[in-house]
Predict the structure.
Amino acid sequence: MSESNNEKTSMEVYPITINEMDIISEQMKKCIFKIENQNEYGTGFFCYIPYKNEKLKVMITSYKILNKDTIDNNKTIEVSLNDDKVKKIINFEDKKIYTSSEYNITIISIDSDRDEVSDFLELDENIFNENINDYNNASIYILQYHKYDNDKKVSASFGILKEIKDKLKIIHNCFKSVNYKGAPILQLSNKKLIGIQSDYFDNIQGIFLKYAINEYLNYKKEYNEINMEVQIKKEDINKKIYFFHLDNEIIYKIFINNKEYKKENFFQPENEGIYSIKIKFNNSIFKDIHNMFSDCSNIINIDLSFFNTQNVTNMSGMFKGCSNLNSINLSNFNTQNVTNMCDMFSGCSNLNSINLSNFNTQNVTNMSGMFSGCSNLNSINLSNFNTQNVTNMMAMFSGCSNLNCINLSNFNTQNVTNMFYMFGFSKIY
């Protein structure tokens, strides 16, 4: 699309249709919502934010429509999608919420299943790496709800990103209506999100999202968080069920089945079933988490993707005796400073797979019993393990009776002094 065409079309508003120049898909339409709050009216959107090895799911809108006071005074807010045909209630409880008047933005975490949201725009992750001036003169478009008496549909307008001022403020020539604040600004070339529509003031039309997103990610790191599922059987009812072993004073909040629970590292269930548990810790940077979940045999799933381990040195016995654990997410584990992984997964007899591809073991000296008793594991890929400083591998795979594939191609054992019983009672084919 030439600049002259952009100049011409920038003064027009196009209702989105499935055939609209093959630029905007029906899926994108499902990502855009209308939001009304008292006398404020505007647009918002659901979006993926790339973070480490995953995509965080969030909703984003203007701070002037949805601010901290509004959120604090209301438990939920209703948004409309698909030209008002679909309405969704977003519950603020147990959400990571970031608001900034400086960036005129509100970002709220989304639970896809609970919030029933399945369609998301994608943030252009190049904005974190490239010179922001590379976006000048880029062809862009805005998806927005416009407020007219007889026309409350999602529409697109196209134009040119003319300038990014002060590394933050976008000037463009896309057509805007009075109530377009909060709308996503996307690149035409890759359909990826780069900004958010702002108000009319000082000829500034939008906000470049790079810095607001970085602030959100830093804010998100303020709390360490663990998510897990615990299975309760009849014989467990009214007993103390521990889900981790650490000092209670470090707990910020605990939610069991989405309801806040008192700050203890155990609970006493009244009924059978599977309990969903979310634990938030006070801005803690852990150094020693040995035996953290040891013998917590009721845990069946653990998600540690938001758990900060960058300063941890001791992980010995961390999951020892978690005999019913069948799923564990360690995708964002930082193990660069860990020296002790002794018995880390010992006795995890129900675990049939484990992804350790991101583990940095360059400083580990003790791996004794690390996988001992993992009788259900059938393969382990340790090709990325750096074992140059390991001295103890005693009983490392003992009792791995179903292990039929193990990759030790990069194992360096020059400093190992103890390999006693390393594969004791293991059956490797």
